[in-house]
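User: Can you help me understand a structure? I only have the sequence.
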Amino acid sequence: MVRLTEQTREEYKNQILHALNTKKKDYFRKSFLELHPTDQAEIFLDLEQEKQNRIYDFLLPAEFAEVFQSVDVEAQMECMLELDEQYAAKMFNEMYTDDVADFLSKIGKEKAEKILASMDRVGANNVKELLAYPPATAGAIMTKEFIAIKASSTTMKVLEQLREEGPDAETIYYLYVIDDNDTLVGVVSIRDLITAPASEKIEEIMSTRIVSVSVADDQEKVANVIKKYDFLAVPVVKEDGVLIGIVTVDDIMDVVEEETDEDFGEISAARGSLDANVSSFAAAKKRAPWIMMLMVLGLVTAEVIGQFEETLEKVILLSVFIPLIMDSAGNTGTQALAVVVRGLAVGPVNRATVTKMLKREFGTGMMLGLICMLTLVAIVPFLYPNGGILLAGIVGVSLFLTLSFSTMVGATIPLIIDKLKIDPAVASGPFITTINDIMGLLIYFTIASALLQYLPQ
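Assistant: Let's start by predicting it. Here is the structure, written out as tokens:
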């Protein structure tokens, strides 16, 4: 056995490429198929088109299916332009149902129907079933390749069933027990199975405390279930309890990445334009509504400053601290937003949780404001001696109040939006920032105007 370090991996890769270049098919197949599919895909993607075509010739459709499943959609699309139709049909028949459905959902209806027509009937029907479910639900991301067993079977019989069906299943670490109506009634781990006596019936060793998800559940909820229970897979059932599929942890990792990208896009007001492959026009089109809305809110900010024009004319030094007030308010609100959105994503919240979260964020804002206020009172008189201690006090108190309330705004808005059954991440960072900018300026200029007569003109 060869342990693949970075050095030996590179050497091994060079040997495989040499075999491919010199058309030593048998050596190439032996070496290439020993690699993990991820390493196979990495080698494949580094090759020129001519060498990729040679791999199609050297590998069987079932073998290339592993490579195809390990590359992204763009690479898969390029492969489809080169693959023979019969080869591609055989390859899709060997792939897991969820992987085929995921690919077909991204290539357009006409092309998808053509591929489905080339597949065998059972496989095509399974894929069509997954495509029929709403996107981002358990039904859309589940796989049909799982092993279901009967409660009346013996462990010996199930082991024989495993030998026969195991190679085609996506995972065999959990075996799902069903009754005559295909209703999920129990689950057995592979450990329980192999340690039980050969004549033991499954109903004697199965667990009836089953954790499952509904076919209509959102994929984020499925991810939370798998994370909570540390599952490698979770069964998917219909409303009547009939087992129709499983969602595996590798699919959930993709879901987590997808949801993270989506939330990041929401918080940064760039939803749908994070993909590096999106064109400049498409990215601008998706960002434009947010930018326009924020521009309008920016006009409100300008109007607030305009309303206190007389105050600024009398004490021009007040304008120096406008960026400080605005930046601090926006940054603090965005931090509170991120904390609350993460809390909502991790799990459901109740009234007690919300109260605790709001108290904590308000307390955090007050402490941050107090620290900033004391710092400003200490250093502003030295930096701007013309303003004196009063100017330092005005800026410090304004910042204290601004940070205290900014954290509440950043924490409250996503909670309200979540209550309205909308993704709380839409309470984007720029949106919160602009609101806090307006509030901070109002606090600052209100205090400054009230004490204007005591400030040096």
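Now, to help you interpret it: Strands lie at 148-150, 174-178, 184-189, 213-214, 233-237, 243-248. The chain is about 65% helix and 5% strand. Let me know which part you'd like to focus on.
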